[in-house]
Amino acid sequence: MDTDTRQPNTAGTGARPDAPAPAWARLAAPLAACWAAIYGAVRLYWAATGLPDFPPIGSDLVFFEGAGGVVLCGCAVLIAGVLSAPRLPRRATRVLILAGVPIAATLVAMCALLMLDIAGLLFGLGVSTALLPMGSRLGCLAVALLLTAALVAAHRRIRPVCAYCGRAPHAAEPEPGAVPRWAFAAAYLAAASFALRIAAEVAAVSGGAQGPLTAGAGGDLATLAAGSAFLAGAVMAGTVLPLAQVHRWGRVWPRWVLPLAGRAVPRWLVLGPGLVIGIGLVSYFGYAQVEMVAAAITGTGGFASFGGYGTAFFWTAVPAYLMWGAGLSVAAASYGIRTRPRCGHCGRGKRGMPESTGDHSE
């Protein structure tokens, strides 16, 4: 029988063949099973006794709050628990990976309201943040991340790749500056979608609406400062951030950024916000888009009169947010692949970010 082992396949990588897998790879599945069981027990209790009144909107998760959330946690426990077995047939591992990917993705989507928590914590803007629902969302996100780590570790165990970086022995390593066309297209889609979102806001505000991008206008100094900070952050996330994923100045500080000109931009300074904001936008506004479509089908009206905005605004702004997030996520994924540093275990890969040079172009 074809069985899995805990030793990473490092043939041709320069790594020691008897080297153990990294600690995170050994611990991810057991930790995922344990935490999913704990969080699932909490959700089972809430499903049996009734969900608490979660302020400010009465919900902690989206899509699956009650029994559905319990079932998903149970599936995560089962998958992670089986992946924790010391030896597992490769075919069974593949089946578990295929089953686990949509579960992990669904768990991430269920935490979509974390975008409101982040906005409330950073900018205020009248968005109240309650600890209990935010803690529940963070707990659900932890299940998703731990399960994802377990799936990645399992995938690397059954393939001839380095257990530390996932690189295959003879795979071509992309140059940091070799940006594929699809990544350029995704980055500029994100920027164009942000411009569409701003255009929708301008049109709505000219009609008397008051929304997040105009928050603070006419208020006190603190409210004005918070609104200005939010607007500045939105502009950065909609223009500079997606384009930094595909242009050289996202990897090397340009000449006008003194005294950093010519030095490497920290990889996670660009990649981290790109992934978090991109996935967050897709999760939150993907949920909003589903709600809008459901409301249109059932004739319940949905967002038609929210905050003085018309239906046309929401059918423009929400898809724009969704495309913004999707484009940013794809561009960030490309950036992450192209800038991966050399693996200290197998020695494969190039330096993801260039060293300081005398070249101050751009």
From TrEMBL:
The keyword Oxidoreductase does not apply. The chain crosses the membrane at residues 23-42, 62-83, 95-116, 136-154, 221-244, 264-285, 292-315, 321-338. Residues 1-12 have a biased composition (Polar residues). Residues 1-20 are annotated as: Disordered. Keywords: Membrane, Transmembrane, Transmembrane helix. The keyword Lyase does not apply. This is Uncharacterized protein. It comes from Murinocardiopsis flavida. The lineage of its organism: Bacteria, Bacillati, Actinomycetota, Actinomycetes, Streptosporangiales.
